[in-house]
Amino acid sequence: MSKDRKSRILVVEDNEDNRQLLRIYMTREGYEVTVAADGQEALEVALAQSLDLIISDVQMPRMDGYSLCQRLKQDPRTERIPLILITSVHTTLEDTLEGLRRGANDFISRPFRQSELLARARTQLRIKELQDRLIQAERAATIGRMAVTLAHEINNPLTGILGYVEVLLHEMKRGQVYADRLELSLQRIQEDALRVRDVLRKLREIPTPETYEYAPGLEGIVLEEDGDE
């Protein structure tokens, strides 16, 4: 997360007094806070905004905290948003296990201290920040591997295409383009162009790339399919 951007927190609480109190707690810490009155509203907010943390009550109308958590974790757009559930004073072990099963990241029971809530929020925000950095690093590494692969796999066919085009242009200027020579050159250009297209297709279709060491410090992506020579 950029240091220039405030962490965005969604507070979900059906009790207005509790909702405003939680908003005050988090706003005073410098967070950007949005509120929702129930799980359904919270789900709509989460799908519409970029959030770093959700703090939600469990008992709410329309959609409770457990159901909200489950819906968030099932959607790729929201599955990485950490969620802290606020439970009642009489929470049982079974309630806690249910929350974990639905994907909750942490729990805090009423009554709680402001310092405890803030500490747990900071912990979840830090974990998400580290996860985001890891994902960004992996994406950057994948882009680097793709660049190495493209340079390795596409260089030869592109060199062939450019070579045949250069020969044809030279012969055209001299007025010495023969039909058989033209046909052969176009066939070779087509073959090399199809090789380039095949490399790009394979890159698009790789779900989890397998890598190889192209040179010290450089990795490429394995493009061979089963049965390829």
What does this molecule look like?
The protein is α/β, with parallel strands linked by helices and 229 residues long. Helix content is 57%, strand content 14%. The chain has six helices and seven strands, in the order E-H-E-H-E-H-E-H-E-H-H-E-E. Strands 2-1-3-4-5 form a five-stranded parallel beta sheet, sandwiched between helices. A two-stranded antiparallel ribbon has the order 6-7. Helix 2 (39-48) runs parallel beside helix 3 (65-74) and helix 5 (114-174) packs antiparallel against helix 6 (179-205). The chain is rod-shaped, with a radius of gyration of 28 Å. The model has no long low-confidence stretch (mean pLDDT 82).
Shape descriptor reads rod-shaped
Mean pLDDT over the full residue set: 82
Q: Kindly, what is the distance between the CA atoms of the first and last residues, rounded to a whole number of angstroms?
A: 45 Å
Q: Summarize the helix and strand pattern as letters.
A: EHEHEHEHEHHEE
Q: What is the CATH domain class of the largest domain?
A: Alpha Beta
- Tell me the helix content: 55-70%
Radius of gyration: 28 Å
Give me the number of helical elements: 6
Coarse structural class: alpha/beta
Output the CATH homologous superfamily of the largest domain.
Response regulator
Instruction: Please report which band the strand proportion falls in: under 5%, 5-15%, 15-25%, 25-35%, 35-45% or over 45%.
Output: 5-15%
